[in-house]
């Protein structure tokens, strides 16, 4: 998603504006292509040989500072600190919800020195954009953590409970504007609408370019409620600027004093899980070696510390159970997009 800002000064003639807009679009496309090419070259050059303990590239399919980048850099730190890999680098490759990075990794067949960070958002992007490359074109290694969404309203909102919010939403769905920080948040709102008996097509959802924008939209009265990652909202909740009405989790979480949506009668449990994949074409021995490396990384003190700092919940899935999980999530998310129209 992109956000637009007002241009200063007098507006140029329409033809000039058109030419400038076209130039900006072409320039943006060239820049994205250049970044992707440079990043892909960096991956390819680092992927010589197949000794995963000698060198590794961890690919974050987004810009620095986001959730996928956090996973990549915390893994890198844990592996360095414990001598699990001699040389490990992180490469950021943003674009199209992560599908640009996925496409580049999909052509590195047989090269085990690359790990792609992904998760719910990447799976959703392959469905939303009908991308040429899908998770079937890489080797899934593990789901490692999940992050929960929280349903929030401004502190001065008239809605004190989730039930009160749902009653007002059901009474006039289009008059209750929602927001969120990304496509995953919209999936959560869609799932909540279905659980409440509301047609998602009738909802008003105003996307924001990140969790910060969604919070600001609530605080300035643009939207009435939002779904967002608990880590993105915790400071505002603890400061009293936002009121948390429900945690979107299968069950109560230790240390988080927020009732789940499920226990309040709305059975929604879609989580923002994070996964790791490798290129296709690996031998069974190479795949098993990568899974072993991942599990060793997750067992380090540095990684366990990161789980606490990021408010992640550890959820480790590998092997055949992982294949089943990914298939079920694909079906689930596809259904939500269909309901969104």
TrEMBL record:
The keyword Membrane applies. Pfam families: TctC. SUPFAM superfamilies: Periplasmic binding protein-like II. Gene3D superfamilies: Bordetella uptake gene, domain 1, Periplasmic binding protein-like II. InterPro entries: BUG, Bug_dom1. Belongs to the UPF0065 (bug) family. This is Tricarboxylic transporter.
